[in-house]
Amino acid sequence: MKIKTVGALILFAASCVSVLSGQDGGKAKGEWLAYIGTYTRPPSQGIYAWRFQAASGKLTPLGLAAETSNPTFLAVDPNQRFLYAANEDKAGTISAFAIDPATGQLKLLNRVPSRGSGPCHVAVDPGGKWVFAANYNSGSVAAFPVREDGTLGEATGFVQHVGSSVNAQRQSGPHAHSANVSPDGRWLLVADLGLDQILSYRVDAVKGTLSAGDPPFTKVAPGSGPRHLAFGRDGRFAYAINEMLSTVTVFRYNSAHGSLDELQTAPVTPEGYTGPKSSAEIAVDPAASSSTARIAGTAPSRYSASMAIKAH
Predict the structure, then answer these.
(1) Would you place residue 19 in the very low, low, confident or very high pLDDT band (cuts 50, 70, 90)?
(2) Alpha-carbon distance 159 to 73, whole Å?
(3) How many CA atoms does the CB half-sphere of 274 hold within 13 Å?
(4) How confident is the model over 254-268, as a mean pLDDT?
(5) Which listed site, 41, 60, 128, 164, has its alpha carbon 20 to 30 Å from 203?
(6) Contacts by residues 211-218 (CB-CB < 8 Å, ≥ 24 positions apart)
(7) Segments making up each domain of the chain, as ranges
(8) Distance CA 127, CA 185 (A)
(9) In this structure, are residues 228 and 240 in contact, taking their beta carbons and an 8 Å threshold?
(10) What tens digit of pLDDT does each residue of 65-122 get?
(11) Cα(307)–Cα(62) distance, rounded to whole angstroms?
């Protein structure tokens, strides 16, 4: 099975991931199962499944796949067997589910405390051994071991962020917004909206602990509010979407130190745009050539932007 990421498509949708439908049958037909996480205010009840046909772009709703509270971000393991959800509640949890590729239904395996409040992002390392979560409200990050049966163990790594930035309303304290795993799985880069920093942690592949990199963080422009981050195809560059200023910051990535060097910051909004600015997501097209890729940024004002990446 293979994984794709597609845009959220229904009201209250917060995150969407997809897996190849029906294993060999799905591969032949080019069909995928798309899972959409939601905020569970009525009528939403949890995670919803859709059947996606890649050739036509058609989406067919399959209904509720799993009832769970505020599953606002989803991630699938590399083998496409398990799905993990960040339950963005005051007492945050991370839920583990088994995927039925034939029906799209999700079976709850277990749920563990996220070690913070309001977990809004979850990621799986390339080897499928660790799950990482960012707790937005409390401004912290945690690592969890993945057992053979897909269940999660208690947190093995935890870091509480401290500090603030220039916007008194939104940046009076730390707000970890995403936990982004490096392509080789050795580093975790955490975008903290409240600090205007992307913090770097070395991942212990055996113990699952997190230790600060050197340097421990990279700053972005004051008031930017970094939210999510995506790596380029070859892993040499990383792209951060800044929620509050609606900009994209381009970095050169040093895999030896897990560090970032800023190369450029560009606006997501078109020239002359005067509407609200609150960018949400960024992705690099995995099908692009090594010299060109596409970035998509989204905002509550319901527009998307794409940018060409020049060869370096």
Answers:
(1) confident
(2) 20
(3) 1
(4) 96
(5) 164
(6) 212/159, 213/187, 213/257, 213/258, 213/259, 214/257, 214/259, 215/257, 215/259, 218/251, 218/259, 218/260, 218/261, 218/262
(7) 3-160
(8) 8
(9) yes
(10) 999 999 999 999 999 999 999 999 999 999 999 999 999 999 999 999 999 999 999 9
(11) 33
β-strands 46-53, 58-67 pairing: antiparallel
Q: Six-digit token pair at 223?
A: 């008031």
* Nearest residue to 133 (alpha-carbon basis) of 86, 173, 74: 86
Residues 6+ away with beta carbon under 8 Å from 18: 3, 4, 5, 6, 32, 33, 34, 35, 52
Quick one: tokens of 67?
């009832």
Spacing of C-alpha 66 from chain mean position? 20
pLDDT digit string, tens, across residues 198-232:
999 999 999 999 999 999 999 999 999 999 999 99
Q: How far is CA 176 from CA 9, 97, 196, 277, in A?
A: 25, 24, 10, 20
How far apart CA 132 and CA 291 sit, in angstroms, is 30
Contact 80, 1 (CB under 8 A): yes
Cβ atoms within 10 A of the Cβ of 266, count? Answer: 12
Is CATH 3.90.190.20 the classification given to domain 3-160?
no
CA atoms of 95 and 93, how far apart (whole Å): 6
Instruction: State the pLDDT confidence band at 17, using cuts at 50, 70 and 90.
Output: confident
DSSP summary character for residue 173: S
> Which distant-in-sequence residues (6+ apart) come within 8 Å of 4 by Cβ?
17, 18, 32
84, 226, 254 from 197: Cα distances, Å: 26, 7, 17
- What token pair was written down for 106? 């999700």
Give the integer Cα–Cα distance in Å for 93 and 267.
34
Inter-CA distances, 126 with 65, 141, 293, Å: 25, 18, 21
